[in-house]
Amino acid sequence: MKKIFNSIFIFLFGFSVLQAQEALHIHSHNDYEQKVPFWTAYAAGASSIEADVFLKNRKLLVAHHENETQEERTLESLYLKPIAKGLKLAVIKNEPIQLMIDVKTEATSTLKQIVKAIKRYPEIIENQNIEFIISGNEPLPSEYKNYPEFISFDYQKLEPLTSEQWDRVAMISVDYKNYAGWNGKGRFTHEDLQKVTAVIEEAQSFNKPFRFWGTPDSKSAWKAFEKLGVNYINTDEPFKCASYLFSLKDRVYKNELFAEVYKPTFEHDGLHEPVKNVILLIGDGNGLSEISSSVLANNGNLTLTQLKNIGFIKTSSADDFTTDSAAAGTALATGEKTNNRAIGVNIEEKSIPNLTEILDAKGFNTAVITTDEITGATPSAFYAHQKDRGMNAEIAQDLLKSKLTFFAGGGAKYFTDQKIFDIVPGVNDIANSKADRLGFFMAEGEAPSTLKGRGNLLPETVENALTFMNSEMPFFMMVEGAQIDKFGHFNDVSGIVSEGIDFDKAISEAIQFADKNPGTLVIVTADHETSGFSIPQGNVENHLIEGDFTTHDHTATMVPVFSYGVYSDLFRGVYENNEIFNKILEIVDER
């Protein structure tokens, strides 16, 4: 037992009781079935904990069914002693806790033993944050007054009581199945919703906390009951329920940043005409769910979703099931899969030519734009050759040795005395520049996010850069919406949605340019998906998105490829990410 307590206390301190001070009002139903009764629910943040009790041979045995009782699993051993020890060691803090004792045997005799057992723990009785509630087989309300003040009752009807009787009621609980048949998947029927709403309102009119028992036990159900105002959410999975409900406020985002949707003309879409310009836009971490969240938050549409040619790419790196941005960027830029962390080199760490170098030799001007530092993994894959993405100083030198005509991004701190590129001070200075080689720094380090003051800097940079690059010479331009990935790593729904919408503004600039400049191909894809993002619920009309996550890292899920303009039909289908490179060169060689 000592070892068990030591493990419990380590567990509690490690999880800091999952911030239970926020009072999530979770009821741990059949708590004794947890691997560690009481402590699992308490550590999760449940403020109501239930134990079914059978009186056998003057012992209060805890189990779901009488034939499952065991002599050593008593109310005292599983609950009263742990609570007393937790109070003594100050592991149990000052948040309210209620222990619901569900009486399964005859009420009077069982209650007599319960009262006797509790009285052996005056330190619990005297603690005003701990409450004992009797449920199940309980006395008539008229008999409540016959029991000590340190116990109260779970009233299981919706009939009025006297004020004296109400004083002894701690909670009202009713059987959910008497009012609805919803199983916790999808949504309530309108009829069931009306019945459930009515019973909640009726119960709460008595000014007592309310609980359903026998409810479905799922995320959809937990959220639905919380939204309906059920005071205590019934669950057999207290830790999962608490984790979900506690994080809900951070996973629901009301969007207030909108992108105007551009409707393409499709005049040259899919035609096999000579290609002059290629614009590759990469949403870092921008998987299908990330795109969907931005679509739904932006009134159900983006410029991206107007496009007709759609494919999917597989993203695994040469040495891992799940790629990082360096290996994925290198595959897109060089046509060769490589190891994670590698920039522009193969698995033997030998330099391999990238698109900007190859196309420069074919008479193209080239450009790289990012909201990351310009030395970041994805942008540097299009001009640099280093064995590790963390070699910022060496990557910065590669930029100065590169053939790029234009670059824009953060990371000015790496280029304090360079003289290769003319650096313009503002985004509006880009379009009118006559420089042969031009650069624009958005920030000393990474550019701020859209929600932290970046505004329309990315689409404005793309718009001005397209004007600067548009000349008699053809051009290749890579544009990265870098911070979708950043907020995926943070599991931040607001950042994923807002950065995705901002990225679509850049896409709009590219599509409009393609409509005005025949011979332009636009490709929109991602290097990988980040966070295992999903969208369980939301509201298009109110621009609400609820996101959920499986990881803080990248995933190996396929990512979409959208294409527009000449030869856009070549990008349909499902293929490896390095095939993007081959398809671009095939098209260019048709010139």
From TrEMBL:
Keywords: Hydrolase, Phosphoprotein, Signal. One of its GO terms (molecular function) is alkaline phosphatase activity. It is an enzyme of class 3 (hydrolase). InterPro entries: AIM6_PI-PLC-like_dom, Alkaline_phosphatase, Alkaline_phosphatase_core_sf, PLC-like_Pdiesterase_TIM-brl. SMART domains: alkPPc (SM00098). Its EC number is 3.1.3.1. Residues 1-20 form the signal peptide. The keyword RNA-binding does not apply. It comes from the Bacteria. The keyword Hydrolase applies. Belongs to the alkaline phosphatase family. This is Alkaline phosphatase. It comes from Zunongwangia endophytica.
